Amino acid sequence: MIYEMRQYRCVPGRLPALLKRFETATLKLWEKHGIRQAGFFTTLIGESNQELTYFLAWESLAEREKKWGAFMTDPDWMDARAKSEADGQIVGNIVSQLLTPTAFSSVK
After folding, report:
1. Which stretch of DSSP H or E encloses residue 14?
2. What are the structural domain ranges in the chain?
3. What's the gap between Cα 11 and its chain centre?
4. Interatomic CA distance for residues 99 and 44, integer angstroms
5. What is d(CA 37, CA 27) in angstroms, rounded to the nearest whole number?
6. How many CB atoms sit inside 10 A of residue 19's CB?
7. Are 27 and 16 a contacting pair, CB within 8 Å?
8. Fewer Cβ atoms within 10 A, N terminus or C terminus of the chain?
9. What are the phi and psi torsion angles at 87 (to 5°)?
């Protein structure tokens, strides 16, 4: 299993809009494309409280490429993203890392 950690740093004040987009649109589209989430987190204490961090679970890099590519080009996603950004940009920066569990990890 491969896990992808994605961190979204929002434009100041726009975290609620990002959370709403995930809750009302993104997760439904991920289900449509077979994308599996492994947890969502907001920052309680850290560099910025305007961050959303989440994990995705992938069987392989090939699965990620196929499903993520289909999601990103889905007209429903492009429409949902545009509508959610009608009041302005939401995300200022995205960091993505692909991780593999260690032999002693509780998550495999």
Report:
1. none
2. 2-99
3. 16
4. 23
5. 9
6. 15
7. no
8. C
9. -90, 5
Task: Tally helices (H) and strands (E) across the chain.
Answer: 4, 4
Contact between 18 and 92 (Cβ < 8 Å): no
Alpha-carbon span 49 to 28, nearest angstrom? 26
pLDDT digits (tens, 9 = 90+) for 34-92: 999 999 999 999 988 999 999 999 999 999 999 999 999 999 999 999 999 999 999 99
Q: Residue 88: phi, psi to the nearest 5?
A: 125, 165
Give the residue among 35, 70, 72, 71 at the shortest CA–CA distance from 56.
Answer: 35
Tell me phi and psi for residue 15, to 5 degrees. -55, -45
Residues shown for the chain? 108
Alpha helices in the chain (DSSP H): 15-21, 27-33, 61-72, 75-84
pTM above 0.90, yes or no: yes
Q: What angle do CA 91, 93, 94 make, to 5 degrees?
A: 100
